[in-house]
Design goal:
single chain; mainly alpha; 2 helices; rod-shaped
Length: 160
């Protein structure tokens, strides 16, 4: 480390003498040489930068085109999915209507016989009730007539 510091101090002392010995014309020549050297070395770098910028612009255009293609592809898939969904909904509605119709037929096949049975049972009950009333009325009339006959018999027996 001490050696590096010592060498650095030596170079600083020597460079001070070298700068002091240069004239303005020498400095201008050095600047001109350095400037031309930089221009020569920078020219291919500038060309490379221009090529890179052109390539980047081409890549940007390609990326934009790819994005548009992907978006168009997604839009096409979405339209196809929507069409399939519409077809599915139509088919589902048709199947639902068929199920509804079949359910109505099944309900009718089960409900009509039950309704007929209910009506028949009700009519049977009504007819049975009427028959029972008639029989009760007839029985009451028979009893009434039997009592009247008994009364008349007793009156004949008493009168005879």
């Amino acid at each position: 480390m001490k050696n590096i510091i010592a060498i650095s101090i030596l170079f600083c002392l020597l460079s001070g003498n070298a700068i002091a010995a240069l004239t303005d014309a020498d400095i201008d020549k050095i600047r001109l040489i350095v400037s031309e050297t930089i221009k020569i070395e920078i020219a291919p770098i500038k060309a490379d930068i221009a090529t890179i910028k052109t390539d980047a612009a081409i890549r940007d255009t390609e990326i934009t085109n790819i994005k548009e293609n992907i978006n168009n592809g997604f839009n096409n898939v979405q339209r196809q999915f929507d069409n399939i969904q519409k077809q599915f909904d139509r088919q589902n509605n048709i199947v639902q209507k068929q199920f509804d119709r079949q359910n109505n037929i099944i309900i009718a096949c089960i409900g009509i016989p039950f309704a007929i049975l209910a009506i028949a049972a009700t009519l049977w009950g009504i007819l049975t009730q009427r028959q029972i009333k008639k029989e009760n009325n007839i029985q009451q009339r028979i009893e009434t007539l039997t009592q009247e006959i008994e009364t008349i018999k007793q009156q004949r027996i008493i009168n005879h």
